[in-house]
Amino acid sequence: MTALILGLVAALAWGTHDVCVRYVSQNNGIFAPLVWVLAFGLMIVTPISAYAGLQTPQGGDIGLAVLAGVFFGVGGTALYRAFSIGPVRLVAPVIGAYPILSVGWASLNGAPTTPLEWIMVGLIICGVAYIAQSDAGHDPAEAPASPLPAIAWSLLAALGFALTFAIGHKATATGGELLLLAPTRAAALVVVLGFALALRAPLALSRRHAPLLLLMGTLDALAIGCVIGAGQTARPEFAAIGASTFGVITVLFAAIFLRERLRGSQWLAVLGVFAAIGILGGAH
Known about the structure:
Structural class: mainly alpha
Strand content: under 5%
Helix content: over 70%
Low-confidence stretches: 136-142
Number of helices: 12
Number of strands: 0
Shape: globular
Order of helices and strands: HHHHHHHHHHHH
């Protein structure tokens, strides 16, 4: 149950973060906001990691944390690219399907996975997909000329996040989740900077977007910290499952704060998603 709670906290943070992604990526390209979100997050977690290192210098596996950060950088780049060229209702369900990989990987590594758990994971993914697909904004002009590039980037993002969490959980299995926050994020920043420099992408920061990017960096650091920090729980892959509901959180926030209407079937899907999460939690 602890892993699921951590995952839901991450979903809340990422849901808020992703409300902003499409806006900043379409106005600044993908690399400038992503670099600054990672940089601001690194500034926030570095003192925390430094203090944790003084307390428990032997905690966790820094090598695995760096590798997790590499995949997080790849996944984050793909996510920003997908949201910048495709509608949320197309991109979010594909990215949100990464728990299939997370649970499959855990099962291959010996974690007992029951048919009920697979059914609940399937219901969560289907619920998230339905809510995103039936979200407001069916304007044909919103859709890309071809959905294939957006789908391809979304699949890469899903794979990147699944590998991030699987490797991150191994890195923190013996502790050190706070110590490893900074190395993970620094590795992700290096990867994204490498892509940006290779493509000669502009990285200038607009002052009017600075507060928003600082907020996004804080939320992103909190979310990845929660999911990877679940490595010490009995079923860390459940944190990835909980975090995958970020799409539901995004739609709910749009309904609450932007007054975008949710139909009755969407509310039923929301209830179904959280009921499935509750059943997973109750089983452990």
